[in-house]
Amino acid sequence: MGRVLSALQPSGFLHIGNYLGMIEPVLILQEQHENFIFIVDYHAITVPQDPKKLREQILFALAVYLASGIDPQKTTIFQQSAIPQHTELGWILNCVASMGELERMTQFKDKSRNKGEQVSVGLFDYPVLMAADILLYDTNIVPVGEDQKQHVELTRNIAQRFNQRFGTTFTLPKPEIRTHGARIMGLDHPEKKMSKSAENPKNYISLLDDESAIQQKIMSAVTDSGKEIIYDQNSPGLANLMTIYSLITQKTFEQIQEEFEGKGYGDFKKQLAQALIIFLHPLQEKIHLYLKNEDELKRILHEGSLRAQDIAEKKMKQIRKKIGVTL
């Protein structure tokens, strides 16, 4: 049994891509491995945040985890900022990582484009904190989307360099990318990943969207000029919608093609919208129930943080001794 670590950044909402790409795989992994999942609130502040909203978003992220079926008895759920060892190790790894490595990070290039001096040092440096998040728990497996694979590779490079310099200390983690549905694309721009930061709300299906919003967004989703419901990567809009339909109904592409043989895009979109409504309704009810019990949410985070901190401190004692700061 290996150790698995996953993380989700708190935001005002989560979309179906977040659920299918990260949360759903964790439900399987928690039955197979020692599982850790945490809310990366320190990563969230790499861009400006309203403190009151951030607090609400931390609790919302936890409510989504629990409503989805992540079990605190099987998975250690905690808050990043509650474990000071994350930032302590982050600083130590800053002294091992190189500027060149961070400058090559694709996500930094994308997020900092055209922002000049407004870009925070945290946005540039957060991959090192992410490496600390992972290495602190001797993580074996990191479930990630394709866009985060580069960060796990950086983590491995930093760990190898540390091990060479100070002796074997860190486990080298491996990224685990979902083979089917690893990236859910934007409904308005199927060439780009569905994003919480998208300016157009028609880009995504929020986990809390009502029936009307889901229907409108799916019916207006970009497709090509074809007619048949056939999976083809050269038709990214339809391929993306078929992927979503496949994941939430557990049907293969072949079964979907048979289901809609002789029917058009309109029929398919109507059925997809209905399938999403049915899929999300019970999840939405559970999310709202959890959000009504703030004390219970805090208790779960507190207990998970105590377990995580015990593991983190044991690791930090080893690291401090390795680098020579323990007297």
From TrEMBL:
GO cellular component terms, semicolon-separated: cytosol
Motif 'KMSKS' region, residue numbers: 193-197
Motif 'HIGH' region is found at 10-18
Question: What is the enzyme's main class?
Answer: ligase
Q: Could you say which EC number(s) this protein's record lists?
A: 6.1.1.2
According to UniProt, the reaction catalysed is:
tRNA(Trp) + L-tryptophan + ATP = L-tryptophyl-tRNA(Trp) + AMP + diphosphate + H(+)
What HAMAP family does this protein's entry cite? Trp_tRNA_synth_B
Q: How does it assemble?
A: Homodimer.
Query: Which NCBIfam families has this protein been placed in?
Result: trpS (TIGR00233)
Q: What protein name is recorded for this chain?
A: Tryptophan--tRNA ligase
Give the gene symbol. trpS
